[in-house]
């Protein structure tokens, strides 16, 4: 339906057509960033034939679409090649672990390798001949055992460790640890790494270090903690709640020897405290980028329109802008998420509006060339109100957000990315983020505009600084195989 094509984004990743959900196996390999994703090649809705879509990029912004990497074609994944993660071995080889949904819909873990390791685009994948490598252990439901993480090396017993989320029979979300020497044989580590009552199935868990001197790569951080106590390193644990479809995280301490992870603040434990994003954002995953020595987060941003509309337009879902993730050393109690710096290479016309004061009850239009793709910041109050975003009646419209700490001496600041049908906002340098899908019926292409308004009954509001960057489309910049 050509009418709806304006909803396609200019600089957020999406497949050329059909359904996408979770980001899978992000990894940097021979100069290319790889993004795999849950993909239905047949339709714009989720189904039982989910495959791994694949794209690669030099800069996390301009993407090249590649052939489907893995399809459901074996007894152990015939009902879906589900989510998983990449591990890079010290010699540079990649090991991919993913969940297969078997011919009996049992969730098992499977192994795959690049068929040709000399191919930087990693086009072809070979599934391990003795798959599956892990079955649900005794006491764990056949349909509650999925989404293996990236593995890290633990020198104390020379094993690789990884974790898998689940829930127990009393609806507590929980995390199991496995260890392996060769990625073919696995041993369940005694006890649970963590567990939170009442939080249900933990999908797509993630565990990674932040804050310490060597605290970005998991293997490095584990090595550092065994040599110096590692007290400066915190570990983020994140789960995607199948109950309410939000991504929850907490800061804590990981102890490999005891196989425990303990939250700093038990009142804000995983699943009950902080979220990565207070809008539409789910099944996210981080990876360590060795090229720029940073941790990068991807999240699946689904549609909030109707399934009927998705079928009509022939596609569904976006990925968030890839975000760097660091510890907020000022508060010590949350992460900072920020669009990767490469996004700024898409900025074209920049308008610095300086200081703007808006009287109560008034609207201030900004004059811009193009308002459908923007990146900008202002320092004043901010509100994500989806109720005003569309006249359509088949979509979810809410007011979404949360409190964000503003410390003494700080001003409130917000950065907002606008890309046709998505608005992604970062308050206070990324202490809190909100993502919305928007489906305007009139404000599309040249009819879109940006306005400052002040709905207060009495007070004036002053934005002490306001900058707007019009954004290029990353897809305009064709990618050559030789790049
Ligand atoms: N999506 C995958 C699962 C995962 C879920 C299936 C989260 O592996 O638990 O498409 O969105």
TrEMBL record:
Which UniProt key words apply to this protein?
Answer: Disulfide bond, Glycoprotein, Glycosidase, Hydrolase, Membrane, Signal, Transmembrane, Transmembrane helix, Vacuole
Q: Enumerate the subcellular locations listed in this protein's record, separating them with semicolons.
A: Vacuole
Family affiliation: Belongs to the glycosyl hydrolase 32 family.
In Swiss-Prot or TrEMBL terms, this protein is called Beta-fructofuranosidase
Key word Amino-acid biosynthesis present: no
Q: Does the keyword Disulfide bond apply?
A: yes
Which Gene Ontology terms of cellular component type are present? vacuole
Q: Which GO terms describe its molecular function?
A: beta-fructofuranosidase activity
Q: Which residues form a coiled coil?
A: none
> Domain Glycosyl hydrolase family 32 C-terminal, which positions?
393-468
Species of provenance: Triticum turgidum subsp. durum
GO BP annotation list: carbohydrate metabolic process
Q: Where is the Glycosyl hydrolase family 32 N-terminal domain?
A: 12-339
